[in-house]
């Protein structure tokens, strides 16, 4: 499974950049420049300002309730608020810098004096080994390092200074050749200092390029016996055989404590599944995903034998088996029925690429127990509306349903799901026969926060029903819904329902009839929106961008953090001028087409814009929002 295993939720803190004191009022902080009148009143030029007379403890308490970017804005007002903001920020226990790549200096400023941070997530694209001085803190319990390419000395510092670390998650951004040449074996020399120094380590995630199979044995040697959750991706079949040999028992090493294992393999086989079920006695969560280059050989693939072995795992609560770009041809309803009989306490089921499994198999899983909360099927070629009948009775506690690219599903499935009153997440992307009747039923779900209808056959009438419905949706994807227009977006956001107050993420990319009018409606009626995708909307113009960039001018705060305008062909040659200060305050990520980066003579140029907005990332690489789906060596301009 790419990304995070099931059940994991990355802690989030909307964290702006804390700049050195001598730049607090410079260009870098133009996005949070306070109004002059307010500043004068706060500072109290006569020495008797109200803020200066308030107790510092009270100011710290108030600022600790704000997001970090708001605290930074207040800090620029006067010395009292500056000191209080420093104290409040230094007491933060969870810091998430995944959406912004700080430099060494900025990271040091953010974490300076903070001896309380317990959970830290950092995009390391612009960091080097010296960042260990800021990151390595005795208080740390959880550390996530994204897109990193540190040397051994960095991890030696982590092992020495973070003895209480419980969780470390590494996302490497270094090629296999560089990795092996620089470190002479990933597992042996790279992770050993952490394993030696962090004696309480329970969670280990390593996302890395494919390595030489010989390194499997060295990594196996160092995995501590305290590990309960292990994620490795990607892993070749030969590497997995070295890590998990089938000829000997490893229960004396780390499998006794292991409860969760997540692997992204080149091929999932019965051999690997049988080994896992025999040796990991306390298995609670199993996530296996593969991406075979070609169709797997019939004698070296997952079959009903491997599925039946899983039915012996009585403690299994979360199961994910997915295949991308191909399918499991030797697993059918018989294997799934056996699984449903043996594992009746599953809370999460995620299946992808099971082309021979029909409604009977899926229905058996749905009716196998009352504890099911998350159910996902992708590329279920034989899954139809019949499997979801009476789902509210079969799985009364279900909160998340994802049925991706299941061609046989129609609006009847959406109507059936509308009876699941606890449903919070519904993803029907790629189900092209979902129409307005299904959306009208969905609009009455009072707890729904995420809805993905990418590619559905809905119209403006369905959006009108959603706009007048009860769903408190915060994330909505309408990508590729070709029948909706700007009028539908107006009906969605100008209705009597709640969505215009709760929506923070909207994707209307690849919708041919979306024009600048839709963007203006969003700017006027949805000021809290933080993520907006307009990719390949051919009628978006400069004037609508200017309106969007002016959001929050009256309040001094713009919530928009990520914007995708890649391949919007009607934008002018110099459309980047609309992103200069003071427009688009707070924007952290901007997606543009590759042709924009390659243009000559544009004003402003990419370099000029980035100089004025040092916290901005510009991507011309067709990434998904925030570049979460790709590694990049340079965080500032991806091309």
From TrEMBL:
Basic and acidic residues compositional bias, start-end: 25-38
PANTHER family recorded: F-BOX PROTEIN AT-B, PARTNER OF PAIRED, ISOFORM B-RELATED
Record's protein name: F-box/LRR-repeat protein 15-like leucin rich repeat domain-containing protein
Domain F-box/LRR-repeat protein 15-like leucin rich repeat: 95-629
Protein origin, superkingdom: Eukaryota
This protein's GO CC annotations: SCF ubiquitin ligase complex
Cross-referenced SUPFAM superfamilies: F-box domain (SSF81383), RNI-like (SSF52047)
Record InterPro entries: F-box-like_dom_sf, FBXL15_LRR, Leu-rich_rpt_Cys-con_subtyp, LRR_dom_sf
Annotated source species: Eragrostis curvula (weeping love grass)
One GO-annotated biological process of the protein: SCF-dependent proteasomal ubiquitin-dependent protein catabolic process
Region (Disordered): 25-48
């Amino acid at each position: 499974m790419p990304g995070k295993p099931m059940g994991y939720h990355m802690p989030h803190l909307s964290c702006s950049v804390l700049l050195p004191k001598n730049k607090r009022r410079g260009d870098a902080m133009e996005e949070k420049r306070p109004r002059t009148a307010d500043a004068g009143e706060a500072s109290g030029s006569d020495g008797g300002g109200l803020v200066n007379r308030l107790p510092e403890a009270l100011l710290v308490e108030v600022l600790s309730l704000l997001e970090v970017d708001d605290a930074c804005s207040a800090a620029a007002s006067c010395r009292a608020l500056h000191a209080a903001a420093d104290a409040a920020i230094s007491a933060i226990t969870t810091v998430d810098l995944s959406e912004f790549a700080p430099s060494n200096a900025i990271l040091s400023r953010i974490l300076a004096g903070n001896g309380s941070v317990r959970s830290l997530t950092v995009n390391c694209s612009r960091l080097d080994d010296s960042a260990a001085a800021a990151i390595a803190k005795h208080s740390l319990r959880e550390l996530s390092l994204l897109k990193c390419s540190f040397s051994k000395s960095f991890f030696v510092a982590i092992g020495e200074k973070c003895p209480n670390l419980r969780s470390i998650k590494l996302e490497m951004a270094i090629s296999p050749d560089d990795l092996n040449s620089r470190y002479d074996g990933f597992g042996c020399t790279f992770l050993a200092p952490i394993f030696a120094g962090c004696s309480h380590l329970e969670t280990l995630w390593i996302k890395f390029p494919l390595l030489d199979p010989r390194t499997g044995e060295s990594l196996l040697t160092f995995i501590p016996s305290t590990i309960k959750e292990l994620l490795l991706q990607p892993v070749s079949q030969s590497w997995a055989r070295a890590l998990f040999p089938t000829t000997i028992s490893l229960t004396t090493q780390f499998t006794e404590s292991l409860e969760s294992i997540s692997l992204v393999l080149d091929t999932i086989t019965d051999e690997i599944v049988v080994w896992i079920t025999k040796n990991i006695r306390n298995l609670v969560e199993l996530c296996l995903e593969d991406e075979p280059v070609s169709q797997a050989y019939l004698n070296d693939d997952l079959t009903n034998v491997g599925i039946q072995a899983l039915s012996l795992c009585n403690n299994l609560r979360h199961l994910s088996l997915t295949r991308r770009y191909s399918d499991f041809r030797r697993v059918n309803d018989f294997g799934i029925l056996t699984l449903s009989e043996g594992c009746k306490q599953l809370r999460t089921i995620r299946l992808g690429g099971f082309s021979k499994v029909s409604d009977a198999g899926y229905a058996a899983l749905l009716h196998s127990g009352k504890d099911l909360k998350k159910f996902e099927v992708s590329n279920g070629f034989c899954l139809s509306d019949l499997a979801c009948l009476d789902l509210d009775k079969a799985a009364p506690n279900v909160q998340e349903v994802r049925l991706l690219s299941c061609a046989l599903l129609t609006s009847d499935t959406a109507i059936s799901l509308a009876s699941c009153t606890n449903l919070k997440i519904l993803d029907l992307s790629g189900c092209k026969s979902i129409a307005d009747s299904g959306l009208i039923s969905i609009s009455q779900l009072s707890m729904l926060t995420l809805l993905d209808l990418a590619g559905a056959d809905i119209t403006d009438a369905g959006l009108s029903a959603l706009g007048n419905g009860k769903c408190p949706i915060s994330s909505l994807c309408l990508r590729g819904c070709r029948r909706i227009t700007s009028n539908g977006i107006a009906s969605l956001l100008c209705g009597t329902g709640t969505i215009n107050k709760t929506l923070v993420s909207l994707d209307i990319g690849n919708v041919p009839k979306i024009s600048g009018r839709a963007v203006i409606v969003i700017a006027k009626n949805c000021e809290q929106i933080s993520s907006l995708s307009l990719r390949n909307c051919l009628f978006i113009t400069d004037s609508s961008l200017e309106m969007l960039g002016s959001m929050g001018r009256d309040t001094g705060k713009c919530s928009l953090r990520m914007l995708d305008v890649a391949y919007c062909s009607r934008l002018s040659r110099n459309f980047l001028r609309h992103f200069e200060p003071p427009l688009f305050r707070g924007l952290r990520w901007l997606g543009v087409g590759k042709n924009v980066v390659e243009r000559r003579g544009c004003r402003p140029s990419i370099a000029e814009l980035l100089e004025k907005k040092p916290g901005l990332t510009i991507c011309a690489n067709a990434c998904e929002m925030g570049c979460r789906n790709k590694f990049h060596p340079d965080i500032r301009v991806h091309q």
